[in-house]
C-alpha cells in the first residue's frame, strides 16, 4: 500500500507579482517500508518537495496524499497530529534546542502529543539508546559533536514511532565518516523497523545507498532504481551514480 | 498538548529569558503596586468616612413635607408634626431595613454648663439634644457609670434644699406642679406649685464624632485635656454637667419662673448618639417636652434612623422609604460616597495608565521573543504543535510573568504602605478620625491586583502570541 501518493503536484512561489515555478505536475508513489532518496542540484526544489510531503507547506496544486489523507484538506489540528504521529523530520542543521538536555530534546514531540505517558523518560532514553547516544542524555547539545547531534535529532524523530522519516540533507553538516554512520543508521531503521525513509540530498554518495532514487531536474522528477549500495559503499567513496531510467514521469 | 508539557516548556522559556522578561515585568509590578496601594487607600478612606464619620448604611427618615409646610408648622408651634409609632413600625417592615431607631428632639431650649474640674473654666453651651429608646443601646456600653435608662423610678424622691441633702448620684431637683404647656412669659410664679426632691442624675450619651471633635479641634485649641472612652469611665465627676431647662442664649426662653436645673452624667460614647449634641433616654425627653411644650410635643418622633443590611442595599431601601411616603433628611453620606468614588476612579486611572504603558512594554518584549524563537517555533510545528499550542505557550508564559509581576507589585505596595504609614503617623499632626493605618489591604484587593497583572500581561502578549502561531513553519525553520 502506498504511504505517499503524489499526482500532478505543482508548486509555484509568487513574489511581488512574479510567479516562479518550482515543481510542475510531479507524480510518484512511495510504498510503506521503502528507502527513497531525492536528489537534484541546489535550487531544484528538493527541500520544497520535502516541506510539501511533511505538510509544512500546503500551498500546492494537484494531489498529495500521505497515509491516505489529502494534505490540503486537513485542519491545523489534523495536520499537526499527522506530523506528530506519522511523520518524523530530520534536518541538516539538527534544530536541537540548546537550552534543553538531549533527553529533553528527544521528549519534545511527546509534549505536543496530548498523551500523558508515565514512562516518558524511559522511552526517550530507549530512543537515544537506539541511535547510540544514551550516554549523552543529560548533556546539552552545545557540548556534543555534530554526528552526536544528528543522532539526538534522529532519536527525537523516532520518539513517536513514525511510519515516515523525512530527512533533509541529513549528512550535509557532517564529515564523511560520521555521515556514513548516519546513513547506516537510516538503513538499519528501514531494515529492522520497516520505517519508510525519504532522504533529500545533493550528495550522490548518499543517494546511491538507496534502492530507489527520485531525481529532480527541470521542475520535474525522474524515478530510477538505485543500487542500494549501503553505507560501506558510501564510506569507500563510491563511483558515479547510476544513470536515470524509467521514471514515473 | 499536555498540561505538564506546557508547564515544562513555559518554565524553561522563562528561565532562559529571565533578564528581558524581568525588565518588562518591572513596569507591570510598578503599575500593580500603585493599583493595590490606591485601592487599599480608597478602601481605608471609605472605612473611616463611611463607617465612622458619615455611615452610608444609615439614613435618617423624616416625615414627607415641603419646605413651606415645615416653615408653617414651626411658625405656628405645631409640635405634632413628626412620625408616630405606626410610622416606625411601617418603616421597620421595609425590606432591607435591619434596624430602626426612633429619635425625639428636645423641642425647647436649655443651657448646659460644667466642665470646670476638667478644663479649669466653666463651659456654657446651648443644649442640643435628643432622646432614643434606651433598650437600643442596652448592653453596648462598656462598663458605664450609670445604666443608660430611665432612672427616675428608682430615685429616692427625698425632700431637699441642696444637693448635699441627697444620696450619692442624686441631686436636688425643683419640680413644678399644675398645668404644663404652653408656658407664657407672664406666668405668676406664686401660682405655680413647686417642690424640691432628690432625683437621679440623667444618663447621657455623646457621639464618637463629638469626642473626636473635642479631642482634635477644641481641646488642642484651648489647651484642654484630651479624652478617650477609658478616661470617660474614670473621670466621672469631671463629666457631670448641669442644664438649665427652658433657658437659652439665643432663642425664645421659657418664663424664668419655669426654668429649672437638672444634673447630667456622661455615661458613654455611642454611635447612636446625635453627632453634635447629647442623647438622653427617651422617657426624659418625652417628660421634658411634655412639661415645656405640651402633650403633643411628646407624642411624635422627629425622625427615625434606619440602618440597611448593607451599603449596597441602601439605595433600594431609600427608594422604598420614599415610595412609602417618607423623606430622607440628609444625603451627605451619598455625596461623600460619590466623592470617594470619584477620587478612587482618578487614582485607579493613574495606575491603569502605568499598567497599560507596561502592557505595551510587554508586547514589545514578547514580539522580540517571537523573532528570537522563530526557528524553535518552526521546530515545534514540525514535531506536532498546533497553532493553538504555540499561542498557548506564549500566553501561559505571559500569565506566569503577570502573576510574578503582580506578586512583586503587591509586595511593593505593602512595603510602600508601611513606609507611608510611618511617615504620616510621625509627620502629620493629629486630625479628626486620623486612623492608625491609611491602607486596608482586603483579600479582594489582592485578588483583583493579581488578576489585573495577569490580564494586562496576557493582553500585552496576545498579538505577539498570535503572530507566533501564524508563523509559516517553512520560513521559521530557514
Structure description:
The complex is a heterodimer of chains A (249) and B (478). Chain A has helices spanning 46-53, 76-85, 102-111, 120-130, 146-158, 176-193, 204-207, 231-236; strands at residues 2-15, 18-31, 35-39, 61-66, 69-70, 87-90, 164-168, 196-201, 212-217, 220-225. Chain A has 249 residues and is α/β, with parallel strands linked by helices. In chain A, a hairpin with a 2-residue loop joins strand 4 (61-66) and strand 5 (69-70). In chain A, helix 3 crosses helix 4 (120-130). Residues 238-249 of chain A have low confidence and may be disordered. Chain B has helices at residues 3-16, 18-53, 67-75, 85-92, 116-119, 208-222, 229-234, 282-293, 314-323, 332-372, 374-382, 387-427, 443-470, 473-477; strands spanning 58-63, 97-105, 110-114, 123-126, 129-132, 170-176, 194-200, 202-206, 240-245, 260-269, 278-281, 303-308, 326-328. In chain B, helix 10 packs parallel to helix 13. Chain B folds into two domains: 3-52 and 336-477, no CATH class; 59-309, no CATH class. Chain A binds chain B through residues 51, 54, 56-57, 76-77, 80-81, 83-85, 89, 91, 95, 97, 99-100, 104, 108-116, 156, 160, and chain B through 1-2, 4-6, 8-9, 12, 15-16, 375-376, 378-389, 472-474, 477.
Beta percentage of chain B is: 15-25%
Give the biggest sheet of chain A: 6 strands, mixed
Rg of chain B computed from alpha carbons, rounded to a whole number of angstroms: 33 Å
List the uncertain runs of chain B: 181-185
Distance between the termini of chain B: 25 Å
Mean pLDDT of chain B equals 83
Q: What is the ordering of alpha helices and beta strands of chain A?
A: EEEHEEHEHHHEHEHEEH
Helix content of chain B: 40-55%
Amino acid at each position: 500500500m502506498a504511504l505517499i501518493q503524489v499526482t500532478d503536484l505543482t508548486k509555484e512561489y509568487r513574489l511581488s507579482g512574479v510567479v516562479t515555478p518550482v515543481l510542475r505536475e510531479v507524480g510518484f508513489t512511495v510504498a510503506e517500508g521503502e528507502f527513497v532518496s531525492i536528489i537534484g542540484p541546489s535550487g531544484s526544489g528538493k527541500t520544497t518537495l520535502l516541506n510539501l510531503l511533511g505538510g509544512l507547506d500546503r500551498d500546492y496544486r494537484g494531489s498529495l496524499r500521505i497515509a491516505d489523507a489529502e494534505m490540503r484538506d486537513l485542519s491545523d489540528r489534523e495536520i499537526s497530529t499527522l506530523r506528530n504521529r506519522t511523520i518524523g523530520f530530520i534536518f541538516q542543521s539538527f534544530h536541537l534546542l540548546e537550552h534543553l538536555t538531549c533527553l529533553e530534546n528527544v521528549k519534545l514531540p511527546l509534549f505536543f502529543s496530548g498523551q500523558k505517558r508515565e514512562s516518558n523518560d524511559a522511552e526517550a532514553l530507549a530512543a537515544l539508546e537506539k541511535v547510540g547516544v544514551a550516554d549523552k542524555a543529560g548533556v546539552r547539545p552545545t557540548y556534543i559533536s555534530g554526528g552526536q547531534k544528528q543522532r539526538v535529532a534522529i532519536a527525537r524523530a523516532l520518539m513517536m514511532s513514525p511510519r515516515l522519516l523525512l530527512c533533509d540533507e541529513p549528512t550535509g553538516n557532517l564529515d564523511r565518516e560520521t555521515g556514513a554512520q548516519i546513513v547506516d543508521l537510516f538503513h538499519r531503521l528501514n531494515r529492522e523497523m520497516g520505517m519508510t525513509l525519504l532522504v533529500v540530498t545533493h550528495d550522490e554518495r548518499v543517494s546511491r545507498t538507496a534502492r530507489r532514487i527520485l531525481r529532480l531536474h527541470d521542475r520535474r522528477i525522474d524515478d530510477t532504481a538505485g543500487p542500494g549500495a549501503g553505507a560501506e559503499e558510501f564510506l569507500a567513496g563510491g563511483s558515479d551514480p547510476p544513470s536515470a531510467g524509467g521514471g514515473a514521469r | 498538548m499536555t498540561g505538564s508539557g506546557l508547564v515544562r516548556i513555559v518554565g524553561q522559556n522563562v528561565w532562559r529569558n529571565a533578564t528581558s522578561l524581568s525588565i518588562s515585568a518591572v513596569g507591570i509590578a510598578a503599575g500593580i503596586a500603585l493599583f493595590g496601594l490606591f485601592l487599599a487607600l480608597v478602601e481605608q478612606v471609605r472605612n473611616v468616612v463611611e463607617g465612622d464619620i458619615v455611615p452610608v448604611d444609615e439614613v435618617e427618615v423624616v416625615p414627607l413635607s415641603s419646605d413651606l409646610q415645615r416653615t408653617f408648622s414651626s411658625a405656628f408651634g405645631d409640635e405634632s408634626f413628626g412620625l408616630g409609632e405606626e410610622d416606625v413600625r411601617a418603616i421597620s417592615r421595609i425590606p432591607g431595613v435591619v434596624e430602626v431607631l426612633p429619635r425625639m428632639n428636645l423641642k425647647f431650649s436649655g443651657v448646659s454648663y460644667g466642665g470646670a474640674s476638667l478644663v479649669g473654666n466653666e463651659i456654657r453651651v446651648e443644649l442640643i439634644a435628643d432622646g432614643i429608646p434606651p433598650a437600643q443601646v442596652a448592653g453596648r456600653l462598656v462598663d458605664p457609670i450609670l445604666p443608660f435608662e430611665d432612672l427616675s423610678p428608682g430615685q429616692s424622691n427625698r425632700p431637699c434644699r441642696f444637693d448635699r441633702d441627697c444620696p450619692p448620684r442624686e441631686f436636688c431637683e425643683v419640680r413644678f406642679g399644675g398645668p404644663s404647656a404652653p408656658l407664657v412669659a407672664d406666668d405668676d410664679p406664686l401660682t405655680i406649685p413647686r417642690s424640691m426632691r432628690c432625683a437621679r442624675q440623667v444618663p447621657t450619651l455623646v457621639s464618637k464624632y463629638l469626642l473626636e471633635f473635642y479631642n482634635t479641634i477644641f481641646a488642642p485649641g484651648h489647651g484642654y485635656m484630651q479624652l478617650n472612652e477609658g478616661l470617660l469611665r474614670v473621670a466621672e465627676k469631671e463629666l457631670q454637667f448641669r442644664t438649665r431647662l427652658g433657658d437659652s442664649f439665643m432663642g425664645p426662653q421659657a418664663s424664668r419662673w419655669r426654668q429649672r436645673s437638672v444634673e447630667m452624667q456622661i455615661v458613654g460614647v455611642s454611635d447612636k448618639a446625635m453627632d453634635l449634641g447629647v442623647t438622653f433616654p427617651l422617657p426624659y425627653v418625652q417628660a421634658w417636652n411634655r412639661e415645656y411644650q405640651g402633650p403633643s410635643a411628646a407624642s411624635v418622633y422627629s425622625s427615625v434612623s434606619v440602618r440597611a443590611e448593607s451599603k449596597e442595599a441602601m439605595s433600594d431601601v431609600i427608594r422604598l422609604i420614599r415610595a412609602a411616603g417618607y423623606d430622607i433628611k440628609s444625603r451627605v453620606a451619598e455625596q461623600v460616597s460619590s466623592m470617594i468614588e470619584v477620587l478612587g476612579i482618578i487614582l485607579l486611572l493613574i495606575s491603569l495608565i502605568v499598567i497599560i504603558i507596561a502592557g505595551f512594554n510587554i508586547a514589545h518584549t514578547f514580539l522580540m521573543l517571537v523573532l528570537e524563537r522563530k526557528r524553535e517555533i518552526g521546530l515545534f510545528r514540525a514535531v506536532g504543535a498546533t497553532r493553538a499550542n504555540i499561542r498557548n505557550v506564549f500566553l501561559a508564559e505571559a500569565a506566569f510573568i503577570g502573576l510574578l509581576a503582580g506578586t512583586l507589585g503587591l509586595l511593593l505596595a505593602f512595603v510602600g504602605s508601611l513606609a507611608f504609614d510611618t511617615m504620616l503617623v510621625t509627620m502629620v499632626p493629629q486630625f479628626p478620625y486620623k486612623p492608625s493605618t491609611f491602607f486596608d489591604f482586603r483579600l479582594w484587593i489582592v485578588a483583583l491586583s493579581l488578576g489585573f497583572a495577569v490580564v494586562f500581561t496576557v493582553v500585552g502578549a496576545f498579538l505577539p502570541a498570535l503572530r507566533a502561531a501564524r508563523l509559516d513553519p517553512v520560513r521559521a525553520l530557514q
